[in-house]
Amino acid sequence: MAGMRREDDIVTDDPQDGAEELAGASAVRVRPDAESWLRKGGLRATRQRIALAEALLGEGGHRHVTAERLYSECRARGEPVSLATVYNTLRAFCEAGLLREVAVDGERSWFDTCTEDHPHYFIEDGEGDERLIDAPAAALEISGLPGPLPGTELAGVDVVIRLRRKPAGASVEG
Ligand SMILES: [Zn+2]
């Protein structure tokens, strides 16, 4: 896929593959370095992984996203990926400890760039418009938990507080 370049010049043998050529036109944004993020998880920085990592980290913050959402973002940026690739790559990120999958409903998987334990709000805003947001961890107190079954150990506890909009007219209290 490197065919756009003129090969007339003798190219010096450069081990660095100069992948980071920014077209100086766009405003410079501070963006977390996708490659070092991948390295942190011990993953090889393939083109596709970098593209997805950049989409994930692009806004610079902690993000909750579905594979479908990331897929459409990548397509909008002209990145030729398939939904299956997005899924597989996100799962690989999870296995590498870079992402965390949050079990919200059976239909969609949500992925969280913050891998620490924390509770979530899930807002059911209607078809295709759900949102996953961090809930204040300090307000959560679990005073008891059924113990693990014989032969198992606790792998994690997902706390998802499901919210839905009140019906119109029901917002006045008292
Ligand atoms: Zn979160």
Walk me through what this model shows.
By secondary structure, this protein is α+β, with helices and mostly antiparallel strands. It has a domain of 114 residues: Orthogonal Bundle (Arc Repressor Mutant, subunit A), CATH 1.10.10. The protein is built from four helices and six strands; from the N terminus they run H-H-E-H-H-E-E-E-E-E. It has a three-stranded antiparallel beta sheet with strand order 1-3-2. The chain has a three-stranded mixed beta sheet with strand order 5-4-6, with no helix packed on it. A hairpin with a 6-residue loop joins strand 4 and strand 5. Helix 1 crosses helix 2 and helix 3 crosses helix 4. The radius of gyration is 21 Å and the shape is globular. The N and C termini lie far apart (66 Å). The N terminus is likely disordered.
Distance between the termini: 66 Å
- Count of helical stretches: 4
Q: Could you tell me the radius of gyration in angstroms? A: 21 Å
Strand portion, in percent?
5-15%
CATH topology of one domain: Arc Repressor Mutant, subunit A
Q: Which sequence of strands runs across the widest sheet?
A: 1-3-2
What is the level-2 CATH architecture name of one domain? Orthogonal Bundle
What small molecules does the structure contain? zinc ion
- Report the strand count: 6
Residue stretches low in confidence (pLDDT < 50, at least 5 long) are 1-30
CATH secondary-structure class of one domain:
Mainly Alpha
Q: Which term fits the overall shape?
A: globular
Query: What is the average per-residue confidence, as pLDDT, rounded to a whole number?
Result: 79
Helix content: 10-25%
Which class do the helix and strand fractions yield? alpha+beta
Query: What sequence of helices (H) and strands (E) makes up the elements?
Result: HHEHHEEEEE
Largest sheet: 3 strands, antiparallel
Looking at CATH, the homologous superfamily of one domain is Winged helix-like DNA-binding domain superfamily/Winged helix DNA-binding domain
